[in-house]
Write the structure tokens for this entry.
Amino acid sequence: MVEINYEQLIGQWHKDRNLIEGSTDKDQYMKLIQEAGELSDSLCKGKDIKDDIGDMMVVLINIMVRNNLTIEECLAVAYEDIKDRKGKMIDGIFVKEGDE
């Protein structure tokens, strides 16, 4: 079975459409917020969210490509930040210890 590298394919898709050189991080952030709104709408309506999450990841990959980052690098940094974090659930939200 051949493993498909979607991060690489999506990065190339952005390059082929001039969405790296022809856009900015700010523009892509605004697109990310638009896609987050679509995710919110789907969650509120009980709809399938796979496409919404995928669209957000596509935009995040654009920002990563333009900043020479990979998903692996970003997730590693995030995990190092949260791995020892303590806190508690308040009204369904995890609140970090010290932020209570």
